[in-house]
């Protein structure tokens, strides 16, 4: 039988420990020392090792809800700063997101809560995008979104209101809410147009962001006659560029003017052959925009050839942006040169530009491969990047070889979603467009068609002038028994001299 041991007291005041007597452990001085007239020397702090696990766990304070809440916000802000902000600009310079937005989260509660909503939505994106991911599925994002709206009513800062408007647009893009994103963009542009720009932050950072952001609505239902125009004059003119940022800030307003003109020409392009020809005012505006694009290109080529501390030709990231701007310029040139033509054969006159777009994209892809890092294949970019530009080649270039090359590059260069453009949907829609125009009954074989002859171009009546994605889906069973989700689309086509006809088609969406 084991011996019964004697329990020795290891706690107590220092004086009682020295005297080897039991201490009543009263604080701040034990009563035994006080009643006997001795000076109590107090208590030593025991090491952690002297406590049992039960004592440690029992004595650990439970974090208050406020402390837990603050820790969660700090984590979300850290996630935004380290993971989300660096990719939101896509291949473009990310200063707006990585510096300006971060700065405003420390100054404005509305910006802070909007960023927390963005961080939460981005983190919870699944491997693939839902067609319309809803914010209601993310209670934390809902909470911060509503709080950002509430806090915005308490600020008189023009800078804060405009910046948060951009953040709200980003939130709606992450949600897949097209109407909401366009509405917030419209609201922000109305504020820009209705106020004097007397702040360097607005002029140098926010205004350029609005010029870029104002482009996407015209691809998602906005019309130039009803969508507000940014009337504030932008400071960067296409004379001399010392940095890639200056070149970008000069091109974006120009591209915005071009797309507004192109959309205003849709009524003529898709109208009856008997409609009046464009007036002199429209023709002069087109010439003016075409000339401005040429002036920008001249200044841009001079920038690329210069040797200065601001221009490092060995900077891979700058080279990628240079190629993106070159592609955007080429697309704008094709737009402005074709938008007043009713026939689709006019695009064949620009095969050299389509080839140049593909070559620039290949160069960008080679440089991206050399820079492959943790930012590779992000889920979302607020900015329009390579995807929509390459999708334009897929849709409007009738060289099968170039179309297939553009499809392949979309799979490696484009983000999964850029602004409101979903790359998988653009690839699926573009693939079906190629199959219809080239009469590929067995479907598109990318490897086989990659070496196709440029001369085998579809006839005018085979070509699609425009398309409208309809709000209708269906599921079909594949040959191997799998389920395929398909989207309905209406193709607008016509024979020369005849009216538009509508051809209903379905294209398969990625699983």
UniProtKB/TrEMBL annotation:
PANTHER family: ASPERCRYPTIN BIOSYNTHESIS CLUSTER-SPECIFIC TRANSCRIPTION REGULATOR ATNN-RELATED, TRANSCRIPTION FACTOR DOMAIN-CONTAINING PROTEIN-RELATED
Protein name: Aspercryptin biosynthesis cluster-specific transcription regulator like protein
Keyword Cell division (UniProt): no
Short name of one Pfam family: Zn_clus
InterPro entries: Transcr_Regulatory_Proteins (IPR052360), Zn2-C6_fun-type_DNA-bd_sf (IPR036864), Zn2Cys6_DnaBD (IPR001138)
CDD domains the record matches: GAL4
Keywords assigned by UniProt, alphabetized: DNA-binding, Metal-binding, Nucleus, Transcription, Transcription regulation, Zinc
SMART domains, per database record: GAL4 (SM00066)
GO molecular-function term, one example from the UniProt record: DNA binding
Keyword Lyase: no
Domain Zn(2)-C6 fungal-type residues, every copy: 12-40
